[in-house]
Amino acid sequence: MEERTVMEPGLVAEEEEEEEKEEEEAEGDLAGQFLQLEKELSALLKALEPFGEPVSHVYHPLDYAWEPHCHFVRSYCCSPKRVLFLGMNPGPFGMAQTGVPFGEAWHVREWLQIHGKVHKPSGEHPKRPVLGFGCPRSEVS
Length: 141
Hints:
By secondary structure, this protein is mostly helical.
């Protein structure tokens, strides 16, 4: 099991290249297709006009927590399902910390056994830092 892994942006070019290689190798499987679709939709969302006041910070966990998100998708989205429930809990102590939908750090790390590097997001809110799997707070939503 991996300990708390929060990294500064831009420090892991080699690791990111390795991740991209793994994604390319598995493009044809269900999880790979799902991840590709997520990347495409994420790019469309980023192209939208920025929010105005009172919104001051927007986190993009599929950017800075892509590695654990991929681990989650490859672990739990590997066969067809009758129902697919998508979403991100709105609070700052779930997916914003781990990249796993509806996943507070303890449950993602201990129960789901998901791991991976979580980088610091750009434009982090000082009162809502991303601590990754070391986040001590629970998500109440």
